[in-house]
Design a protein that fits this description.
This protein has 600 residues and is of the alpha+beta class. The protein has 5 domains: 180 residues, 3-Layer(aba) Sandwich (Rossmann fold), CATH 3.40.50.300; 85 residues, Translation factors (Elongation Factor Tu (Ef-tu), domain 3); 74 residues, Elongation Factor G (Translational Gtpase), domain 3 (Alpha-Beta Plaits); 107 residues, 2-Layer Sandwich (Alpha-Beta Plaits), CATH 3.30.70.240; 110 residues, Alpha-Beta Plaits (2-Layer Sandwich). 44% of the residues are buried. β10 and β11 form a beta hairpin.
Amino acid sequence: MSRQTNIRNFCIIAHIDHGKSTLADRLLQMTGTVAERDMHAQLLDGMELERERGVTIKASAVKMQYVDVNKIEYELNLIDTPGHVDFSYEVSRALAACEGALLVVDASQGVEAQTLANLYLALETDLDIIPVINKIDLEGARTAEVTDDICELLGVDEDEILTVSAKTGTNVESVLEAIVKYIRPPELSRSEGSRGLVFDSHYDPYKGVVIYVRMKSGNIDAKDRLSLLQSSVSFEPLEIGVFSPEMEPTGKLLEGQVGYVATGIKNVSECRVGDTIVEEGGIVIEPLAGYRPVKPMVYAGFFPVDGDDYQVLKDAVEKLQLNDAALVYTPESSHALNFGFRCGFLGMFHMEIVQERLEREYDLDIIATAPSVEYEVETQDGDVITVKSPAGLPDEGKIQEIREPWMVVNLYLPATYYGVVMELVTKRRGVFVEEHHSGGGRLVLVFKMPLSELIVDFFDKLKSSTRGYGSLDYQFDCYRAGDLVKLSILVNEQSVDALAMIVHRDEAYSTGQRLITKLKKLIPRQLYPVAIQAAAGGRIISRANVRALRKDVLAKCYGGDVTRKKKLLAKQKEGRKRLKMVGNVEIPQDAFMAVLRVRD
């Protein structure tokens, strides 16, 4: 038996919170990969943020040794994947490095939105699927019902579905046996050269860019000179090894294996996820297919609080993009906030995580502007331009029509919440398409709705109105023309482009009023009155004044002539006018966040 037939590359896919990381912990324990004294919960979630929020953000790889009942030793390479809808790009990259997947479903929650989305991704990639029902020890477990749902979904027999409790370790041994039995080994390549797919990477200050590689054909050695095909960069590796689960140097990677290569490259832009690593100077080799380019859904501006930190922010975003290929960015300047970057994200949760990682890992203070989506604008001349921020919108007189992105949204919920969810969606311009009954008193509702209505707090509202039982998944549908206008905010008669937003004309007045009311409370008082105004369609639609801080200039006057007091008050009034001419109003971060909470 060749060594390659004993390799199994697999990942775990599931909806958020269905127990992927806990199952990974049990597999690591049972294969003896991690010593008992080093074991802790969510071992593969190495990021502090992942532990705090209890979600996997980054896909991570680990090699395990497993000996079956016939005393045959297998090498199992597990790639743990995120479950949140915003990190589906991470999942798609992990799948390309595997031959099989464990589909984990919570016994009490059943099949949910991301379960299906990730399953379809895995089937597209032609992976062997092993269905696993987890959390069978819970009081509310509906194991029999969920088994029926999975049988119907995958067209498999009941006895092919594994029932486990990752928390207590019940029946987890059967998962290891199933991986060896049902997941195929890596195919032997017919290519003569060595080729490896780069599926992830991170930056190390000592080793440069460390790339995560799945060898598709041939072997690579630490003594070889290697090169990356897309970026045409060649290098001598500093270190080659596997994850078990820490980086462990082995000096070589063999065909079918998953491991890492420390390149020593310091220029972050030269290493790209989806690139092909090859041996330099060999035969001409076709690059591997790589990945579909990512399409950001949400855009927001990131600006350093201290203008001198711009270069630090630039380096930080570059390094973070290496570890998070779904992040895109371009330089941007703002009248109110100076220089920064317009960044593209897959969703609001992704944006939140990126901001927090920049602040924690690179010790930066950042102001994030309100998120917006990408619009298509047709001008009177017939040109079509894409607009990623409200500030980039042309003058109203030049616009023929504005088109916004619409999504197909699948909502999964118990039938009892039908009414509240219908109301929630129709309030946000959603259009009902169809509904399905998925058994167990659960419904699948399909809607079409604008992405701008979906990104901000729709997920939170869905969770609260369905007591946590609702879940959603969405895909891009098309661009549709809408009656949209730019809502501008003026502070002290100066337009603050970072607070501008694009809204539906019918909602402009009410949104403007609510926003002005919020900003009035948040913008600090000055020594002169500050006017805050909302403008849309070429006219002011709402206004509020932040009253001036009053200095008591009469404090030193005890009685005496009234003309003395009048003179002092007149002098103060003159001073205020002069201050107002040169005054610059500092706008706090809370003001930019108020744009997000404007619906409340």
